[in-house]
Structure formats: structure tokens, C-alpha cells
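Journal club side-thread
Mid-discussion, someone asked how the predicted structure for our own chain would compare to the paper's figures. Pasting it here so we can look after the session.
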Amino acid sequence: MSARDRILARVRAAVDGAPEAPPAARDYLTSHTPDDPAALLDLLHENLADYRALVHRTDPAGVGPLIGRLLGARGSASVLAPAGLPPEWLAHTTCVRVEDTPDATAAELDAVDSVVTGCALAIAETGTLVLDAGPDQGRRRITLVPDHHICVVRIPHQLVASVPQAMLRLDPRRPLTWISGPSATSDIELDRVEGVHGPRTLEVVLVGE
């Protein structure tokens, strides 16, 4: 008998005859936020900024000019954009547009200055953006390798209050990427380092109707 078998045998003996576990409680709140669209938007903005994302607000007509200014301020010469990105979002930039091809290497993606995408949802209570590889988001790798990510959120239909509400609207069969601020990690002395597992700089454009 292996060590694994002995351990499992002891576990079975310890729980033999134990009562069945009670059913999981599902009476928790699905949101802790008042049903006020303006308050929800302010909460998302506050939590995104708390995670050190750079947050901007505009209307649909202002998305293209704003993205052009952000790329210019960054000094970006190239921008990677998914095939389904609305063309007007990049109409005000002179950056060379880079296509995401299946044979693109990590080094080639790392050489791109910026990436611009949409999102599937934004969660106000956690300041989280969720991408699901939709046409305006592209494959996961294009938002993990380049150092600068501009993500556009359409308000109000892409904004939810909480994670439980988000789960009801997301397809678990899709490749979901959950982003809460720029990529960051800390060592045992709590020295924060950004850009280790994804973009060092995250800019979020909140587009109100």
C-alpha cells in the first residue's frame, strides 16, 4: 500500500458515519451597492483608480480623439488592436496598427507600444474589467504582453455592480481574463513591482451614452 492509499484510508475512516454536510447557503446579497447608475459609475471609477489604473471619461464621439491623445502622450509609435475594434476608436492616431497574427511571437508582441481593446464587463464593487476574447478584445495574450493597455468600457450596459451579477452574464466556456488594475506583485518585504504578469500601465476609458 502506498503512502497515498494509507492517507486516504485514514481520511475515509475518520469521516465514516459522519452526517451529511448541510446544503450551501445561497441567501447572500448579490450586491452591496444601491441601484443608482451614477453612483455605480462613480464607484467603478474610484476602485479602478485605487488599483492605480488611469481613468478617463468621455462620450461616444470623444472616444477616438481621447485615445489619440493618450497614445500621443505615451509616445506610442505602434498600437495593437483586435480585428473587431470599432475603426473610429483609432481614427485620430498616426500609430502604426499591428495585427494580431497566430504566428506572432511573445517578443514581437512585447515590441508593440500599446494595445487598445474593448471589454465584456466592468464590475464596480471590485474595480475589475472582464475580457472574454470578443471581437473587440482579441486573444488573451495581446492584453498580457504589451506594456500599455487602453481598455474601453461602454456605460451603462457593460457595467454591473458585483461579481455575482457578472457571473450571470458571462459565458464560462469563453476564455475569461479578469483585470483589477495594472499587473503588480510584491515580495516578502512588500516592495511593489508592476508589469510582471501583464501591462505596467492600464488606462480605462469610461464611455457614457
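Post-session note: The first strand starts at residue 54 and ends at 58.
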